[in-house]
Design brief:
Number of domains of chain A: 3
Structural class of chain A: alpha/beta
Helix content of chain A: 25-40%
Number of strands of chain A: 25
CATH superfamily of the largest domain in chain A: FAD/NAD(P)-binding domain
CATH architecture of the largest domain in chain A: 3-Layer(bba) Sandwich
Number of helices of chain A: 13
Largest interface: A-B, 68 and 68 residues
CATH class of the largest domain in chain A: Alpha Beta
Distance between the termini of chain A: 58 Å
Strand content of chain A: 25-35%
Oligomer: homodimer
Largest sheet of chain A: 5 strands, parallel
Strand order of the largest sheet of chain A: 3-2-1-7-18
Chain lengths: ~475, ~475
Amino acid sequence: MTDPFVVVGGDAAGMSAASKAKRDAPGGEVVVLERSDWVSYGACGLPYYVRGEIADVEDLVVLEPRAVIEDRGIDLRRHHEAVAVDREARTVTVDADDGRYEQPYGELLLATGGRATLPDVPGTDLEGVFSIRSLAAGRALKNYIAPHDVRPARGVEGAGGDELRAHLDEADPDAVGIVGANKIGIELAEAFVGRGLDVHVFDAGPRVLPAFGSDVAETIEEHLRDGGITLHLGTTVEGFRGRDGRVEAVETAVEPVAVDAVVADVGVEPNVEIAAGAGIERGPTGAIATDEYGRTNDPNVYAAGDCAEKRHLLTGEPIHWPFALAANRAGRAVGRTVSGSPTPVGGVVGTQVMKVLDLQVARTGVVDHEEARTAGFDPVSALITTITRAHYYPGWSRMVVHATADADTGRLIGANMVAPEGTAHRINAVATAITAGMTVEAVGSLDFGYAPPFGPVWDPVLGVAKVLDEKLR
Amino acid sequence: MTDPFVVVGGDAAGMSAASKAKRDAPGGEVVVLERSDWVSYGACGLPYYVRGEIADVEDLVVLEPRAVIEDRGIDLRRHHEAVAVDREARTVTVDADDGRYEQPYGELLLATGGRATLPDVPGTDLEGVFSIRSLAAGRALKNYIAPHDVRPARGVEGAGGDELRAHLDEADPDAVGIVGANKIGIELAEAFVGRGLDVHVFDAGPRVLPAFGSDVAETIEEHLRDGGITLHLGTTVEGFRGRDGRVEAVETAVEPVAVDAVVADVGVEPNVEIAAGAGIERGPTGAIATDEYGRTNDPNVYAAGDCAEKRHLLTGEPIHWPFALAANRAGRAVGRTVSGSPTPVGGVVGTQVMKVLDLQVARTGVVDHEEARTAGFDPVSALITTITRAHYYPGWSRMVVHATADADTGRLIGANMVAPEGTAHRINAVATAITAGMTVEAVGSLDFGYAPPFGPVWDPVLGVAKVLDEKLR
């Protein structure tokens, strides 16, 4: 590394790569170009910040910028936006407050992240229509929905903050609409209900959280409704109606629903503009294609995090998987690779966990039969209802566990589960078994821990594996 | 099965075998000989019963005897005690209330369980010295320690109950001694503290819960002391001193400690008398030796549960593993095997979890270096201190995770962890990885779930695997 290792984007993947490269090769120069005020921000915490459980948005930041610069020796340049890459000259064009410059690189990591996909309907430009993918946007949203008397006095800093400031001290909403019954949508619904708002969730599909499996969706929907959230499922959002430039209703094919604010994140799309401009290839998902080391079609250019594809270990196919662990891991691997120890970025098996009010919801692998068949499996599923503690131990709850096996090989290929306790970490054992290629017979024979406060003698994972094993005989 | 499948002992292993055999081969005759009043009792719940969290000891019973008989078609004979086996004649000698008889068998399962090992010191026969391996003993103990005004009026039924009745309505203890800082001892210490008693735990060893790893013991000991439990570690119990036939002190090499009751279960030993009398071989642990299908040296005689050995999958050695899941699994496998589908009883990797006041304590695999070297491993360990939720999510606690790898192969071979939340189910992912033979590099690359309420981005299991991986490079 005579020319520096240059990282575009200072969030999970970028800062993991920079830190690892600096640690493994302290003599090398590492430059991080971050267009905003923040680095290593935990965007996964934004719903909890919006709810008010986390007092200050700065609390989400994993590393203080100064600590990064001083302790790690990384040349961190905030408010420096990479706008183009010249692969022949090996330079990045950077816009900074004091002008534009060309930054040479030896190796380059594109960790440009993702952004909210807004629905392609009229009214997304109205005041009160938000997305929640940056800290600045999160703070603006929190302030917008806060009652006036508890609204923080400080303004919004960082990228996009100035435009959003105008929203503050304007509204005092009663009803909020959320477009998309996906993970971020449901987490926000919980946050809004926690603040006493009237919450409406819209989704064109028939079920909430389709990624978590239709077999447990009913349990989740009942819980959301009991929690005071209004679900508009099978309902296409046709636009947002405004008055004086501010949102006042969500328009649907059925009837308009009056709201004072909307979060309209229907998905996450990768930020690939710089890559595309430089001739870096994208894969079938639209995100940047990479090899197992995170390398793009240019061997000196890597991509990691929400802008890049990952490989699904079960299907073998590329997948866009915009989640924190995958980004951290890929960044760390690239940091190691550029320091001389080639390290695979690792694949995913699709593990996700989330809190839904008082439920823990978890999934891993391939749970949908159509998806399983497309991947070449012959799916067989089982659903069991069990309990979260020994039957005699006070405080047990019902747990619903669904699992899928491949009838050809007997392998466990997916599971999803819902309960007030005990699914968020249990799913990791299933993820491990899937990664190891275990059959349901082998999973049913695993030596799991048992104590009355933590589960039944036959752990739910073993229980569902036993049932699948009987089915396959 | 022209002659019946006869099961000696109606707890976890025996009832699992009987139920499975009856379900898989409904035409076959299944006889269960149980010397007590109860079947399928959850002895693991006794500490919680003693504490008072479970109102009635009958709540611990998994199956009501009548339901067993009527719904499953099993010939369950309570108060029938098997006293001898004639392998040539294929009969069991049974003592029942109305006399002795010879019961023919086609195949026989010895599921005779285990019993408390009492220390070989003077005074174990004093009134107020208890063990806690049967429901009757548990009830007697609970009544003994109960204040008079809340003592239940009903008596003790079942084996051993009559002798113990004499203890009731006699004592109103203030201080209780527990011999052995093992799992049952610590669970009982918690139960007694929960009832407002002054609790003294004695152990000759330097640490509590040695099976759970010395590296986390300090955390547990601090928590126990904060919880009001007095630990007498490195303290050999030399006997129990009585007055008028009732225990009044625990005698140690240091000084006597005044107590009103003692639980003296220093371990569990297998009930092998019937087996030994019939020439059934025992293994190096003293429990009944079996092959992978639970068969003894007589192909028509099986053994399962606390009276039989299991195989440790990592060390390859026989182990006495008197825990509920292993007993249930082995019983079920034998039930299947005698019904015509030979099924291995499965090995263990040593997974244990327990609640210690407000801590979850978990272990799996081989965590002790001496034990690892004996098994042919070259152990390398790492200890990390991490947190149970994202750093910005309210309510996180400290988690201590210790893990051991084999330097020769890079395989993960053991882990132990302690925290107020999130270890009881996390350990199962480690157990799965160990069973699959994964290296620490592979474990560090696993795709685990992440959400701020449930852990840091790098799950503690991944975190400790990463550190071990770096150590091994």
